[in-house]
């Protein structure tokens, strides 16, 4: 642990307070004696430092509600904590919101840190409930690979299929399967059937189903320390599969910095923090940036501190899940869906051409087609906006022409609020609680 000279007086004062038996805490005592803000900042900055000693990979748990994603995440942290590679987080620590604990489901995405012998991981525990699929899309968009959790007692379910589709569309290339709750299923033939169905489903959505590792185990047994042959040993097997099957991604470090804002919060006495995954580039402390989106004009600011997993960093780089402390910015000025970028590199847009595939009923999409001026919701990075879809200008019989499930079409999209959009950017279209189309931005209009 390294401390600069500026922190040494704080430590001496803190020790003095302890030796004198003062009733106030060492931190409070020190802050009374010195400039509170500067000492607190110094102690906070140098107490914990994020060190890059292993390749960093973003993964996550996806799958149907109540199939055991959060329990598996907790079991992973417990096992890796035993090896000195993590801090153990139980189910309640991961599902932090009172509503989540009350209902027993994950609503928001939770970011957890752990490591293996080979890598450092940021793990996103995604919600499986259909009502919170918006948050799952954000979580999946941040992943380099994923673990899909399937309950042996249920097999594949609606969100199993939708999560695989969304993972594919946001660019996830490799999936590892964890068939959970095998302790609740005594028939080995049923386990074989679940595995066979999952391999077929993976192939359907463009994953390598025949080669994908499938681990059969019980996250609850691992968490409770029972039946190691299906518990803790299977957690080890799962993490080994993740290490070997999911490749270390190549990061776009040389491109201009861009981070999509996923969450915003305030730190009393310090300011507004925007957090999210860095899509490309690098950023150093005290560097100037722009906030783009949710308005026509960018907001200029400076990043005065950078954190990754509550550890201070000198630099944020592509692939990191970072929190950026923004100078002179109010919390209400920053909204989910905005991007933080190198000044002058990105602009917000409201109208663009898209190439998209419309899902069939069998794929979970619409049962019927739609006409010109169709108004769904569009998801771009962490932004979701009301949209209107039209046939491109010059299309004959545009008002009577229909788009049918299964079609690949070119359309013009107009959104309600301007969003940072680039050619080649992926998106998803949703309506009525389901994903109905997916595609790419092909040309910016305005």
From TrEMBL:
Alphabetical UniProt keywords: Elongation factor, GTP-binding, Mitochondrion, Nucleotide-binding, Protein biosynthesis, Transit peptide
Organism lineage string: Eukaryota, Fungi, Dikarya, Ascomycota, Pezizomycotina
Subcellular location: Mitochondrion
One GO CC term on file: mitochondrion
Key word Nucleotide-binding present: yes
Protein name: Elongation factor Tu
CDD domains named in the record: EF_Tu, EFTU_II, EFTU_III
Matches recorded under PROSITE patterns: G_TR_1 (PS00301), G_TR_2 (PS51722)
Organism: Phialocephala subalpina
Record function comment: This protein promotes the GTP-dependent binding of aminoacyl-tRNA to the A-site of ribosomes during protein biosynthesis.
């Amino acid at each position: 642990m390294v401390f600069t000279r500026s922190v040494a007086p704080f430590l001496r004062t803190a020790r003095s307070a302890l030796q004198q038996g003062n009733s106030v805490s060492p931190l409070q005592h020190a802050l009374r004696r010195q400039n509170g803000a500067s000492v607190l900042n110094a102690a906070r900055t140098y107490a914990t430092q994020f060190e890059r000693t292993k390749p960093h990979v973003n993964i996550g748990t996806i799958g149907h509600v109540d199939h055991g994603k959060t329990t598996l995440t907790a079991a992973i942290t417990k096992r890796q904590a035993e090896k000195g590679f993590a801090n153990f987080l139980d189910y309640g620590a991961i599902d932090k919101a009172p509503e989540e604990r009350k209902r027993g489901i994950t609503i928001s995405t939770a970011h957890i840190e752990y490591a293996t012998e080979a890598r450092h991981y940021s793990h996103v525990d995604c919600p499986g409930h259909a009502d919170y699929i918006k948050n799952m899309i954000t979580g999946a968009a941040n992943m380099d690979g994923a673990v899909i959790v399937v309950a042996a007692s249920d097999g594949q379910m609606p969100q199993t299929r939708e999560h695989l589709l969304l993972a594919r569309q946001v660019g996830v290339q490799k999936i590892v399967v964890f068939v959970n709750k095998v302790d609740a299923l005594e028939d080995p033939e049923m386990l074989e059937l679940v595995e066979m169905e999952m391999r077929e489903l993976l192939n359907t959505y463009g994953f390598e189903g025949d080669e994908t590792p499938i681990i059969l185990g019980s996250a609850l047994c691992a968490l409770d320390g029972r039946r190691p042959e299906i518990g803790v040993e299977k957690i080890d097997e799962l993490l080994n599969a993740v290490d070997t099957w999911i490749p270390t991604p190549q990061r776009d470090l040389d491109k201009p910095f861009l981070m999509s804002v996923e969450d915003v919060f305030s730190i009393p006495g310090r300011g507004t923090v925007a957090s999210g995954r860095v899509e490309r580039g690098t950023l150093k402390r005290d560097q100037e940036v722009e906030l783009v989106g949710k308005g026509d004009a960018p907001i200029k600011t400076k990043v005065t501190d950078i954190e990754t997993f509550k550890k201070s960093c000198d630099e944020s780089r592509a692939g990191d899940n970072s929190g950026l402390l923004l100078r002179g910015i109010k919390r209400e000025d920053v909204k989910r869906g905005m991007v933080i970028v190198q000044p002058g590199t990105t602009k917000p847009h409201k109208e663009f051409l898209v190439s998209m595939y419309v899902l069939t009923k069998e794929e979970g999409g619409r049962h019927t087609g739609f006409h010109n001026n169709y108004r769904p919701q569009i998801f771009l990075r962490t932004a979701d906006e009301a949209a209107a879809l039209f046939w491109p200008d010059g299309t004959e019989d545009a008002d009577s022409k229909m788009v049918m499930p299964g079609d690949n079409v070119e359309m013009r999209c107009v959104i309600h609020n301007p969003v940072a959009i680039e050619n080649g950017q992926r998106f998803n279209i949703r309506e009525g609680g389901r994903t109905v189309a997916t595609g790419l931005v092909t040309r910016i209009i305005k």
